[in-house]
Amino acid sequence: MKSIEPQAMEALISLSNLYGSQTDYVIAGGGNTSFKNDRVLAVKGSGQALATIRSEGFVKMDRAALAALWLKDFSGTPDQREKQVLECLLSARLSGEENKRPSVETLLHDLLPFAYVVHTHPTLVNALTCGREGRAAFDRLFAGEAVWIPWVDPGYVLAKAVKEALEAFQSVHGFVPSIIFMQNHGIVVAGETPSAIDAAYHRIFLVLSTLLKGKADLEPRPVDAAGEARFLEVLVPLAQQALGTESVFSVRATGTAILDLASGDGAFAAVGSAFTPDHIVYMGVSPIRVDDERGLPQAFDGFSARYGRAPRVVLAKGLGAFCLGTSEKAADQAYRLFLDAVKIAVASTAFGGPLFMTGAAIDFIRNWEVEAFRSKVSAGK
Fold it and tell me: What superfamily would CATH give domain 6-209?
């Protein structure tokens, strides 16, 4: 019978809630988890929040059908390829799971020969994976126990790259590694038990934390109230028009690190593009920065012309950040991903400074239907 043992499912839920409730690991609908036996893979549904996920949030997949995907030839055109792969993933769902959509990383989870898999986007790990010297640091610190995956598009292409990397590692070392570092993306940790995963994460964090040169100061600082009011008088109607809504929600961030980033174009460059797919999905490709409210119309127009959508985070000199959304939840998600970007920017100085996604990678994520779906589910739409 194709099923997951109740105790294993409960352990998976507990593991997911544990990592999902810690913003140092995942934010919003980010990250994914799974459990597998010989015949069935239970994997997080796309856009589900790990912090609150229950059994119905997982999608049960036929592992034989997933294995058969590697025998198929897919289109060389990215859009067509992703449609074909999605159709195959949906057809691999077990009976009764038809109204659910599995994580885009389902194939990656199925590849790893371990019962439990936890894929997260920790700020501390992404200081390394989003650092210009991150690969060199990985080679020094983890090369004998883990694999490094240079940036590739998430989903099928990433799973294929991981498959090849695991096979190459095994041919040299004689075992399959349980840890995968992914450039501008995050980390995957697998294990036969939840405690094995906990121990691996603890060790990785311990190693990386000893290398940090400092943390971002995010404690709120007082700003000019009159200046903020003048700024909002211009910002709110612009955001309403750009976001296509009468209600615009804003979350403020005024920490010293943020005020420093807002002070000029040179400082702002440290957060001037996207670190990971999650930042694009929940915060936008990048914030915009202006000296005062007079620069807002041109900044909004320039961003919209370039990306076809409104900016979600606005930095103003002397005032800090305004994180925008069409709902409280959306504004809060933009705020939390922006703070994460600030933390990564500061922490990455231990690994050569910030390394952003390439323009091609950003465009893939921006135009990927899978990420649009994930964003909708996470926002509760």
Answer: Class II aldolase/adducin N-terminal domain (3.40.225.10)
